[in-house]
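Data card: per-record layout.
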Amino acid sequence: MMVKRNSLIFLTAFGLLLTGCSKSGLEITKDDILEVARDDANATKSECENVSIKEQKGSYIVSFNTNGGSYEYKIGKDGIIKERSFKRGAKEESNETEEPVKEETTKKEEEKSSTSFDEGQQQAINAVLANSGLGQSDVTNITCSLDSNTNQYTVTFVLNDVTTTATVDSTTFTVLSTILG
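The structure for this 181-residue chain is written out next.
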């Protein structure tokens, strides 16, 4: 009887310890946010230049350049990437003059897309572009259509004169296949 009682006390204490740990409110630092962005870009710390991290409405805006291009991320304070943008061929010049122009372009792109595509189509497009590591401003000739028989969106776009076609599940917005050419 004593062994059962000690085991019960131990399990109760262990459960309370775990419960306390899960509600500890760990806060993600700017270094953590930068690490999320670098991991997503597959870039090491030494490859990143002109690093900028700004706090904005419950999120962080992270931007940096690598030899492959320039990256910009909107990452929530929970560490989840909300938006990403990639442009090939990073410039060695200061990034400060480019950022406002990029933000205006992004806002104009969003206005165009909201009038051209319904919410489901835009989610499918966003899933395909995120899966490809691209932003909507990186590609041209975007089309999106829903096949009601298969419940799949077909997204097509052109990047560097190469047409890409992808299928996306209409309920989960998971990219099912991507075909180049």
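Known properties of this structure: Residues 19-24, 90-115 have pLDDT under 50 and may be disordered. The beta strands are 49-56, 59-65, 69-76, 81-88, 140-147, 152-159, 162-169, 175-180.

See the next section for split statistics.
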